[in-house]
Amino acid sequence: MSEQDIVMEDRSAAQSVPPSVIEVEDLVTHYGEREILKGVTMEVREGEIMVIMGGSGSGKSTLLRHLMALEQKTSGTMTILGQNIDDLNMQEFTDLRKKLGVAFQGGALFSSLTVGENVMLPLYEHTGLDRKTMEIMARMKMEVVELGGFEDLMPAELSGGMIKRAAFARAVVMDPRILFCDEPSAGLDPAVASALDELILNLRDAMGMSIVVVTHELDSAFKIADRITILDRGHILMIGTVDEVKSSTNERIYNLLNRVPDGENLDPDEYLARLTGEESGVGNQPL
Amino acid sequence: MATENEHNSAGRFFENVGRSAVHGIEEVGNGGVMVLESLYWTIFGYRLKQPVRMNAVIEQMMEIGITAIPIIAMLGGAISVTLAIQGIHTLRIFGAESHVTAGLAFVVVREFAPMITGILVAGRSGSALAARIGTMKINQEIDALKVMGINPIRYLVAPPLIAMVIMVPCLTIMSAGVGLFLAGVYINVELGISLSAYLDQVIDILKVDDVAQGLSKSCIYAVEIAVIGVVNGAGVRGGAEGVGKATTRSVVQAISAIIVTAMIVVIMSTV
């Protein structure tokens, strides 16, 4: 193979990988003196669904909060949509945030506003549109999440699944480039959870947005993920496709995927040492 | 052994005192930053295309001011009549009960109207503000605002702060007016001084400085109530129980701040 062929092959490989919308380099973060993320490096590509998985206390929610620029990092760099967040002034930061949407675990709908007003809020705050136009846009997004006709209800009058759908509608009303979802199917019955998975896939396909999902639901993760990041005790164990993750021989990934309780395969003395924090580094683990 | 324990408990005591002091200073600092940020958004919000919404301010003014009128009028009146009764009773010892108007006018306009209004607003609206912000925090609604690019200070803090600074002085004027009127009615019945003579006396006695002192105090109370409510609400931890604690703490702190401020202003204005 000639040198020119190799260059051509590299170029075509580069062209087939979509550009990154989020790049995280050596992210370290602390809560007080406790180190939560210990040098996380990852990227989210344009148009992909990246699922972040891990056991309790693995740091996945903290990582998500960092990706949403809600936390102060100790060190490392984060680039969102090509902008290093450390270099942004307040206005640039606000402009960047308009391109992000978030569906929080509990919905985080404002209880004093109707569902329609909740969905309309980002439009009201960031666009100079007249109320009629905003109402139409909000109604369209509510139709997308199959909540048409519920605009005038208060959040307290909705079921858990409907609240999550409304949160999705609000998250996508500004047509964000990146959508973050925190445990979208947690606490929902399998049918509703499955419908939400479909909704996430539809949002990706119809709107072309990049989606980052934090979940511990294996079925959901395998159904929606283009790639999966597995976190363990603040470290990334693996980033790969569903098939790559399923075929991993890493013991901790095996334990996570097969729901083996942490410590079950350990020697009793080692497990005791871990519980008492005597094992190296364990004292720093998040609870 | 006993000495070591005493050393430890003394050490812990001073450590706790130190921690509390640092925490207190931190909260005061947070409050100051919130006031400055609110001011910033109020002035420059339009330029940044993120104005403080007038309808949110009006909504808060309704909540803080209009709905509080009956209770503030009632308690302002009750306190003033009580002061009139006590004043007449005390001055009668010296045969000077006809001078009750002077003391009453000063004390109602300078002290009691702003203080009673402040305490009631702290109990009604300061606690509600702390509870609202605390609940929003634990429901991740504040995070949602941030991610939507909506500054929480502009959206949540500036409207009640502005509304308080406008409404508390208005309520103070109303409270003083109702109080002085009802006290006048009592004095009319008790001492036979006509209402018009009483009002003439009040207007004669009160100077612009007295009214300005009462109103400036009420403005300070308004800022204190709003800031204490917001700082406590924003500091909520631990779910619904945390919200309850923050609400109680905000009322206690606001009332304490009002009384201490009143004392400091009196000392400064009379020395």
User: How helix-rich are the residues of chain A, as a percent range?
Assistant: 25-40%
How many helices of chain B?
9
Q: Could you give the order of strands across the largest sheet of chain A?
A: 6-7-8-3-9-10
> What structural class do you assign from the helix and strand content of chain A?
alpha/beta
Mean pLDDT of chain B: 91
Architecture overview:
The complex is a heterodimer of chains A (287) and B (271). By secondary structure, chain A is α/β, with parallel strands linked by helices. Chain A has helices at residues 3-16, 60-67, 90-97, 115-126, 131-144, 160-172, 190-207, 218-224, 242-246, 251-257, 268-275; strands spanning 20-31, 34-45, 49-54, 75-80, 83-84, 100-103, 178-182, 210-214, 227-232, 235-240. Chain A is built from eleven helices and ten strands. In chain A, the strands form two sheets. Chain A has a six-stranded mixed beta sheet with strand order 6-7-8-3-9-10. In chain A, strands 2-1-4-5 form a four-stranded antiparallel beta sheet, covered by helices on one side. The N and C termini of chain A lie far apart (54 Å). Chain B is mostly helical and 271 residues long. Chain B has one domain (2-270). Chain B is built from nine helices and no strands. The longest helix of chain B has 43 residues, at 2-44. Chain B is globular, with a radius of gyration of 22 Å. The interface between A and B is medium-sized, with 27 and 17 residues.
